[in-house]
Write a structure and sequence with these properties.
The complex is a heterodimer of chains A (263) and B (240). Chain A is an alpha+beta fold. Chain A has a single domain, classed as GHMP Kinase, N-terminal domain (Ribosomal Protein S5, domain 2). Chain A contains five helices and twelve strands. In chain A, strand 5 and strand 6 form a beta hairpin. By secondary structure, chain B is an alpha+beta fold. The longest helix of chain B is centred in the C-terminal third of the chain and has 30 residues. Chain B is globular. The chains are: A alpha+beta (263), B alpha+beta (240).
Chain lengths: 263, 240
């Protein structure tokens, strides 16, 4: 992503707002934007989800391929996550091979899901040593107004949890629901005006410093952490956002579960 | 490609999806779907779904791509990896490059580029669900997105395609009709004058069939145009 030139002025006004405990859009520091989640929104994907957080909109699509298991793990299938940030989603995203930012996003989302163990790769085995399912999770940004990470992670887990394995189309039995045993949720915090805020908008990202991404599982266990960008933070700051993440992740998990029940 | 076992039409002249020969799939358009873009449109065309976003006019860089007398259009057509039944590997391929180019050629014919020397206007077309006829879908959505962005144009390009399956000329082929079909004639039409800015064809059509396909396209273009205008009016109000 190319970085526009405004941030010096923007940083100043963000610092002034932060001193009064305020944010550009009037939110509390740990308040998120309104969220809309739509499941099964893509006709040709085996699992899909659209998430809108403020003016950030993303899609996640799950596809399946048949792979040959790795020789050292003959009974295991695989999960592959790829985030594509195409220039459709904002003025500063440029065409070309995957950028560092999009690779980081794909990998951080992937780690949260993988490390939570919610997908049992042994269950993806069709014929040991010969055939297994590869689950491919594609993340696609439609509109980037900040915090693509959380939007991607939320869309990803919702799409996986509602995905159907297309066994009939591949001639290996009957279609069945992909087994996903947990609901790992990511919460991201960005240092803006000297303190961490949750769910930063694009302007907060542009005028902000380091960001921290926390993925928590069903029991509140930590499954992935990532610090990104330049900046220094203290143990106290981290412990404050970790507490906030515990509460917020539980809320978001509840939203996903309610949505699944209503399907 | 032969007829195979596929029967595109029953004895009453009704196609598999319930349409008559000259009927389009249902088309829905919505403007402003990418909030951070200068203009955008979502189109649902049968089972096709596409998003188009417009950014600019903005500085064209690097400088060697600038035109001193006019703006350039930077058009990209892309299919999302989950848009088809077999996943598409991300990245440009020859097909998407060609479609990007013919789309640019069509849109450059109507946009008043001379108003913005040395600048560029980015037009991004993303197919998120593909059935058949995604290039028409993309060009049409891009026209609405350009209008939504307030870019001056002499007219909006409406792109539609007629084709032939089982020897019958059909408007707007769906997936099986396209797979088993014998011809496809996509056109980009300016509805105010019935002029063309985009034309492709492949397959086999007699002159009579060609004329019929052409006439189907002209009629359909006006139907789609009404839906495009309606989408813009819904966002901005006013009369056409």
């Amino acid at each position: 992503m190319s970085v526009p030139i405004i941030p010096a002025l923007l940083r100043q006004s963000l610092a002034e707002l932060a001193a009064d405990g305020e944010r550009l859009d009037g939110r509390e520091k740990f308040a998120g934007r309104d969220i809309e989640i739509e499941i099964d929104c893509l006709g040709n994907a085996e699992g899909s989800c659209r998430v809108r957080m403020g003016d950030t909109i993303v899609l996640a699509g799950v596809k399946f391929q048949i792979m040959t298991p790795y020789p050292d793990r003959p009974t295991q299938g695989g999960l592959m996550t790829s985030a594509e940030i195409r220039p459709v989603c904002g003025p500063n995203w440029e065409p070309g091979p995957p950028s560092e930012e999009s690779i980081e996003m794909g990998r951080v989302v992937d780690r949260g899901i993988r490390e939570s163990g919610c997908i049992d790769t042994n269950e993806l085995c069709i014929l040991p040593g010969e055939k297994a399912w590869q689950v491919i999770l594609d993340l696609f940004a439609v509109s980037d107004d900040g915090n693509l990470f959380d939007a991607f992670a939320l869309a990803a887990i919702a799409a996986l949890r509602t995905a159907t394995v297309p066994a009939e189309r591949f001639d290996v039995g009957e279609d069945y629901k992909l087994g996903v045993s947990g609901t790992p949720i990511m919460c991201s915090y960005q240092k803006v005006g000297g303190r961490f805020v949750y769910d930063a908008t694009k302007r907060e990202e542009l005028g902000g410093d380091e960001r921290i991404h926390i993925t928590l599982g069903d029991e509140g266990h930590v499954h992935s952490l990532q610090k990104g960008l330049r900046g220094i933070f203290t143990a106290d700051e981290f412990s404050e956002i970790m507490d906030a993440a515990q509460t917020r992740c539980a809320e978001l998990r509840e939203i996903i579960h309610k949505l699944e029940e209503s399907q | 490609m032969g007829y195979g076992d596929y029967q595109c039409m029953d004895e009453n002249g009704i196609r598999e999806d319930g349409r008559k020969a000259d009927e389009m799939r249902p088309v829905e358009i919505e403007c402003g779907v990418v909030p951070v873009a200068d203009g955008s449109a979502y189109i649902k065309w049968g089972k096709n779904e596409a998003i188009a976003a417009v950014y600019g006019p903005m500085e064209a860089h690097p400088r060697k791509i600038q035109r001193q007398d006019r703006a350039i259009l930077d058009v990209r057509y892309n299919m999302a990896p989950f848009s088809t039944s077999d996943r598409i590997r991300p990245g440009f391929n020859r097909r998407s490059r060609e479609i990007s180019k013919v789309t640019r050629d069509a849109l450059e014919s109507v946009v008043d580029l001379e108003l913005y020397p040395r600048s560029k206007i980015r037009v991004e077309i993303e197919i998120i669900c593909a059935e058949a006829g995604t290039r028409c879908c993309g060009i049409t959505a891009a026209s609405v997105a350009l209008a939504d962005a307030g870019i001056p144009m002499s007219d909006m390009v409406v792109s539609v395609a007629a084709g032939k399956c089982n020897g019958i000329v059909l408007m707007d082929l769906n997936k099986p009709e396209d797979n088993y079909g014998e011809a496809d004639l996509p056109m980009g039409i300016l509805p105010m004058t019935d002029e063309l800015v985009f034309l492709q064809m492949d397959g086999d059509l007699s002159m009579e069939e060609f004329q019929l396909a052409w006439d189907y396209n002209m009629k359909a273009a006006h139907e789609v145009h009404a839906i495009m205008v309606e989408a813009l009016q819904k966002r901005y109000g006013g009369e056409s």
